[in-house]
Structure formats: structure tokens, C-alpha cells
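Extended Data, panel c. Modelled sequence:
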Amino acid sequence: MAKANPIRLGIVGLGRAGWGMHCPELKGKERMFRIVAACDVIPERCERMAQTYGCTTYGRIEDLVADADVEMVDIATRSVDHCAHALLALKAGKHVFLEKPMTVSYAEARRVQAAAGRAKGDLYVRHNRRFESAFLHIREIIASGILGEVHEIKLARVGYSRRDDWQTLIEFGGGQLLNWGPHIVDHACRLLESPVKKQWSDLKRVAAVGDAEDHLKIVLTGENGRVVDLEISGGAAVGLPEYVVWGTRGGLICRGNTIELRYLNPRAKLKPRGADPATPGTSFGTPEKLRWVEKTIAVKPKKTYDIWEELYRAVRRGAAFPITLDEAVGNMKVISDAKRSTPFAAKR
């Protein structure tokens, strides 16, 4: 067995993301990652990390990025700090794993991307929901061709919550567009399978306090003609399927871990038809009996991924990281375009 060569990780931000998500995900991956340092402005959080991992702790990111033992800086701070913290870590020559959103604006994303191009270390953006089982499985179904040419996709993550934390405040990078948005915009851009030709959006604040949006719709039209319609809401009392896909030969609905499929039997030949300009009878067109395949299947993609394993392969083996910087920056362009000329645009 090859000798373990774990990436020496310094985590910045020990709250809901750093402590609540990243640390649990790293359990069992000690051959790939070793937490050697941690940083937070709250001393109790640092004490908890020191007791749990035996790592060095800091109250300032400037001290953590200066630690020679830290090889990669895992940034899990508030959204509004991502740009400044990524720039500090890149300037210090570290690899950077940057929690979503990459930044709070397209301009900041371009700035970080430019810095990464000059830096000794590499920058990786954590669009971890790119590897959700339902998303992977639906992409496999679309690629199989059984739905024909896909012309429209609907994505939704909705619920109802009178939310009142910092993610309701524009000042700190709050709002659903920078919370769920980076995940679902990333899904939308990948499912579009084409550069964006046209974008329409609408943002509202419905149930949350603060001054940031909690309800939004974005419609993207690709150069290929495909439309992706996405909705994210904390102000929707009635739910929606997470995915709806319509193609020229069928479609699907996905709720949770279940996919409902309806598509034309590939073995059944469709008779040629033409438009009839004559005065119609009592029916709306010529009746036709179509042979449909209808089935319900569990979400189970043929191939799955783990973002931490992909990160390790990229750093230690030089493999291509599945989320490119151009893709991450492109997602921020969609988000910034949606906010432009609205009351929810960043106030700085």
C-alpha cells in the first residue's frame, strides 16, 4: 500500500460550514487530509477544534496563512469575506478550497480568479452539490437520449421559513441567491449544456426578515435553445418537485430519491404525420395512440463522486478538478446579473 501523504489542511471559519459540514465529511478520509490548523474569531470554537483534532488554532486568518505547516486553506467563513480571505491565502502561496458562494459578486470572482492565475497554489471552489445523486442520475438519463431532445428543465428548492440569521442581510452576503443560489445556478448552467444567450430574473423578500431576497426565479435560455427555469424560495408554503425535465420524446419528475419517467417506447416507430390545412372535424387533429413507457425508479446514478476525493486527486495526482474556475466564475455572473438593478444588489 502506498504511503499516506495527506494534504495538511487549515480550516478558516468553524461554524455551520467549517465545523458542521466540512469536519464531518472529512471523517474516514485521514489518509487524504489532516487538519493541522483552524481559525475562528470565537475562542470556544478554536478550543473545540484543538480538543478534537489536536491542531494549532488561531484567532486571525493572517496568522493561519503564515503557518508553514498549512498546505491548503479551507475557507468556510461568511460569504462576504470569501474574496478577501481567498486573496490572503493565495498571496501566502497556499492551495485554497473555497466554500460557496465563491464571492458575493462577479467582479470579486474575476478578481480572485486573476489572483489564482498568478499564485503558487491552486484555487478550488466547493460546488459540492454538483455531485448530488439525483443530479448525476438525471444527467445520465438525459445523456441516454430516451427523452429525445431536451428543450426545458425546471429546478426548484422551496420551503417556508421566517429566517432571521446573518444570511438574511445583504451586508454579510445574505439572501437565497447567495445561499442556495450557487448550487442551483451551477446545476442550471450544467444542464443548459450551452452558453447563456438570454437571462430573465425576479427577486422578492417574502417571509424572511432582514433586507435580502428569500424568493427568486431565474430563467436561462441557452444558445442551443434549451430553457432552464429555476426557483429558490424561503417563502413558498406549497412545495414543488426538485427537477422536471421535458424532451421531444418524454419527460421526468424527481422528488427526493424517486424519479418518475414517461417516454415514448424507443422500439415503437412513429408514423409520419403532416399538418392538414383542411377544415377540421370534431376532433383536435388526427387521433393517435402513442406507446408510452411509464415507470418509477429510485435515484441511483451509475457513477458517483466525492468532492474531497476529487480534491485530493487534483492536488496530489494532478488530476483535473471537475469544477473549473471558469464554471465557478460563470455561475457568479448569472447571480450578479440577477441582482443588478434590484434592491438586493450589494451595497458596497
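The domain at 7-126+306-322 is CATH 3.40.50.720 (Rossmann fold). This feature is highlighted in the accompanying rendering.
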